[in-house]
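Hi everyone,

Forwarding the result from last night's run.
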Amino acid sequence: MSQFNPTLRRTLGAALVACSAAASAAPWTTIGSAGVVDDADAGLVDFANGEARMAAGAPAGSVLNLRYNIVALDSFQGVNQVAWLARFRDNGNGARVRLSLRQYNTNGTTSTIATFDSNTFAAAAGYQTQILCTAANWDFENGPFYIEAELTKSDGGGQPALGLIKLTNANCTP
């Protein structure tokens, strides 16, 4: 019967530990086009290149609502600081992208944990990526978590869009 080389055994063991640590610290990610659209908003959305965009023909005053389910990852347990990255387009006063991290509680109420608002950043003609730091208590036993996205077109020139969302447990300061 052959014996594994002790050095090889230690190396493989260390690699296994490193891989499992990396897997447990994985972020939660989604693309804009993965959102579930409210039935009433089906005519307002344009899905292209993984993005969710307000349809060009949508009238001023339109609000597009999408929801993104957050699954319980190993690293999303208990109280954590969360780096919330979003790639979005807010091209000025006629556009706004608001993302709300929510929990639907087992008692039937909904709690808003944090809100990411494109209006807190300078408008840009193209897409931009911004990060918000917040805190969350990932208590999946008390109910599921989700992100509700609200893309608002308040005038004819507004072109709100959402490209991606990423949540990472991180050492950041809310």
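Confidence is low (pLDDT under 50) at residues 8-24.

Cheers,
N.
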